[in-house]
Amino acid sequence: KNNCVLPEDLKNFYLMTNGFHMTWNVKLDEHTIPLGSMAINSISKLTQLNQSSMYSLPNAPTLADLEDDIQE
What we know:
- The protein has helices at residues 8-16, 63-71; strands spanning 20-28, 31-40.
- Helices cover 25% and strands 26% of the residues.
- With 72 residues, it is α+β, with helices and mostly antiparallel strands.
- The chain has a domain at 1-42.
- The chain has two helices and two strands, in the order H-E-E-H.
- It has a two-stranded antiparallel sheet with strand order 1-2.
- It comes from Cervus elaphus hippelaphus.
């Protein structure tokens, strides 16, 4: 539909659930202090990331190169 391809593990994740949010706290004395948070957006909130050519090296390996190595 949106002309994008998801990695197989991410595709499987979204087939099971539509996003994820986890927070964790630490309790010091009688006070609960927020310590961290992690979120994976729902599939409707995903945005495509484009790599700027100024940050890529010529002939740098890509994930496609790894896939080719597996098939050999």
